[in-house]
Design brief:
single chain, alpha+beta, ten-stranded mixed β-sheet, 16 strands, 19% strand
């Protein structure tokens, strides 16, 4: 896109009543970091990029500075990173009239992809897929809990004794969905207006919990939509006097919130995962794709389960996979094969929770699948029945962020797939996250030990 094209784009935006822009990008925790700019500044940013303080890659999800980062820090003086807007991501913000949104990729001082940029990591894997002749199509589905709370009340209550949107266990409930029809319509219509089309929206089992399935798309657009969905959902909830959480496990007594990924590879307009009935309906490429993910699953767990809280979901009986397994239409396995033998044949990656950074989770799992195809890795026999612990030959998935991060740190495969710089930075951020948790004194410790010890 050249200068004339930028003029045309800005003229179109002005004609639609746009007066300002929100521009930014996602950090390693999946937080959208950005700012408002004028249309004049937007034109400058489109033509030459813009500076964005690289502290966004030097602090954690709570804006606390890392003490172990290499990509930036006090030793570099926290300079600006060069941000480059992607005009194809532009979308009007329906709940902010007169505002257009646009996402950026981050570059280093030499103009290369910034080693800490999650979107760039995914673009690296997509480029590799295309070099092999494959066009990946992906989608995400999230579970999330809604509360009759505001940001102020959440903090006043210290995130305890929260009032759910609705009481009781009402999975797939027409009644609960209908009782909140205005909110349901706002989510469906608002997301569509924000270029995030939903295929489904329904209650899950638990007080005030819903699941939204985002329509599949080309890999990068799918990741953009999955990442933007969280930010948009938080805004929509706020507009209705509500709060939403995408924590993997906000309450020990309730099911966790999943973040599943659906994946397929296409070539010449055909789904290469579709196979003949004699092979169970899956192709050789799909078998090897599954095999690659299983081979890498333990060492890429930290990329799919990024928080300390992620691992509170890995307990028996709550739909989270405990082993590196696969199966046809088996929701206890880490990889569920859906639509075998049809044009919609795909892999559902069930390991992740709603706390995923979709860029990173998609990059890791897609890259692992491609690794399996390149190395013709056979996945073995599919699991039938419960894929939980105890079965012969089933690799146990990591149960803590500490364990998962240690495995990732030693993984040469993931370093090759995602890039040495990205994995090094990511490992450092997860080691920091673990250290913050280890120093914390929890409510559980106080209740258990304060009087009795």
């Amino acid at each position: 896109m050249g200068g004339a094209s930028y003029d045309e784009l800005l003229g179109e935006l002005e004609g639609r009543g746009v007066r300002r822009a929100k521009i930014g990008g996602f950090d390693v925790d999946g937080v959208l970091r950005g700012k408002y700019v004028s249309l004049e500044k937007l034109r400058s940013a489109l033509s030459g990029g813009f500076g964005f303080c690289d502290v966004i890659f030097g602090w954690d999800i709570g804006d606390v500075l890392y003490d172990n980062a290499r990509v930036t820090g006090w030793h570099t003086g926290y300079p600006d990173a060069h941000a480059v807007l992607d005009p194809s991501t532009r979308r009007l913000v329906p709940w902010e009239p007169g505002t257009v949104a646009m996402l950026a990729d981050f570059r280093d001082a030499e103009g290369n992809a910034h080693p800490a940029c999650p979107r760039s990591a995914l673009k690296r894997v997509i480029a590799h897929a295309e070099s092999l002749g494959y066009h990946p199509k992906l989608s995400a589905e999230y579970e999330f809990f809604l509360f009759k709370e505001t940001p102020a009340s959440l903090h006043e209550k210290r995130f305890q004794k929260l009032e759910s949107l609705s009481p009781g266990m009402f999975g797939y409930s027409w009644v609960r969905e209908g009782q909140h029809k205005d909110l349901m319509a706002a989510i469906f219509d608002g997301m569509r207006a924000f270029d995030i089309e939903l295929e489904g929206l329904h209650t899950e089992t638990g007080p005030g919990v819903y699941e939204a399935a985002i329509r599949y798309d080309d890999a990068l657009r799918a990741a953009d939509k999955a990442a933007l969905f969280k930010a948009a959902m938080k805004q929509l909830a706020y507009e209705h006097g509500l709060s939403v959480t995408f924590m993997a496990k906000w309450n020990a007594k309730l099911p966790g919130s999943s973040g599943h990924l659906h994946q397929s590879l296409w070539k010449d307009g055909e789904n290469v995962f579709q196979g003949p009935p004699s092979e169970g309906g899956i192709s050789r490429q799909m078998r090897h794709y599954i095999g690659g993910q299983l081979a890498c699953m333990r060492e890429m767990t930290a990329l799919v389960s990024p928080t300390v809280n992620s691992y509170k979901r890995y307990v028996p009986g709550v739909w989270a996979p405990l082993t590196a397994t696969w199966g046809f239409e088996n929701r206890t396995a880490a990889l569920r094969i859906v639509g075998a033998g049809t044009k919609s044949a795909r892999v559902e990656v069930r390991q992740g929770a709603a706390d995923i950074n979709p860029y990173i989770a998609m990059a890791a799992t897609l890259g692992a699948g491609l690794y399996g195809i390149e190395n013709a890795i056979d996945p073995g026999a599919p699991i039938t029945g419960d894929a939980g612990e105890g079965g012969e030959g089933r690799e146990r998935l990591p149960r803590t962020l500490t364990e998962a991060t240690a495995l990732l740190a030693e993984s040469q495969r993931m370093r090759k797939i995602l890039g040495e710089g990205f994995v090094d930075h990511y490992v450092r951020t997860r080691q920091w996250e673990v250290r913050q948790y280890e120093r914390a004194v929890t409510d559980w410790e106080l209740a258990r030990y304060f009087e009795a010890i």
